[in-house]
Amino acid sequence: MAPTLLELAHWSTWAVCAVLKLPQLAAVLAAGSARGVSLGSLLLELAGFLVFLRYQIYYGYPLQTYLEYPILIAQDAVLLLFVLRFNGNMKRALLYAVIFWGSWYVLTLRKWIIDLAMNLCTFISAASKLAQLRCLWQTKDSGQVSALTWSMSAYTCASKLW
Predict the structure, then answer these.
(1) Least crowded by CB within 10 Å, which of 15, 17, 34, 96?
(2) Where are the transmembrane segments (predicted)?
(3) Cα 55 to the chain's mean position, in Å?
(4) What are phi and psi of 29, to 5 degrees?
(5) Rounded to two decimals, what is the model's pTM?
(6) Using an 8 Å Cβ cutoff, are 66 and 56 in contact?
(7) What are the DSSP calls for 8-57, one per residue?
């Protein structure tokens, strides 16, 4: 019974990750605004995902252990573009792309760099959530933040812990 439940959790996590950011994207597009969505939070989350993906690839982990991360990164990149567009900062998109692309290669210049970055991933992820909560607290308005996206994210975190 336990292996079946683990397999169900595994596949359901992949399925949820495949559509995780879609409710958030839909909310931002429908409103034509990124009010309440923290740019800093999004950048931190994207950085954490990139570090995790690079670490998994660097150490040769099986694809199924990190397959959801390229999907999440793609969704975050699209969301980042929408947030930049609706905040009037599209010129920064190229800067962020160069920084993330450069970081992708810098991470593996030395083994200790990728190891340190991976050790900081939990902190980066927590900082991302705190940045979003801070944004919500400061604006006193959830704006276009999707509760469904946050709920699905909580599910994937819980299923990975299990």
Answers:
(1) 15
(2) 12-32, 39-57, 69-86, 93-113
(3) 15
(4) -65, -45
(5) 0.84
(6) yes
(7) HHHHHHHHHHHHTTHHHHHHHHHHT--TT--HHHHHHHHHHHHHHHHHHH
pLDDT along the chain (162 residues), means of 10: 72 79 86 86 94 96 88 93 90 91 93 95 90 83 67 68 58
| Residue in the structure block whose two tokens are 């990164």 | 73
Residue 15 confidence (pLDDT): 80
d(CA 128, CA 144): 17
CA geometry: angle 6, 159, 151, nearest 5 deg = 145
Q: Which of 9, 5, 1, 4 is nearest to 158 (CA)?
A: 9
The answer to whether 124 and 134 have CB atoms below 8 angstroms apart is no
How high is the pLDDT of residue 129?
A: 87
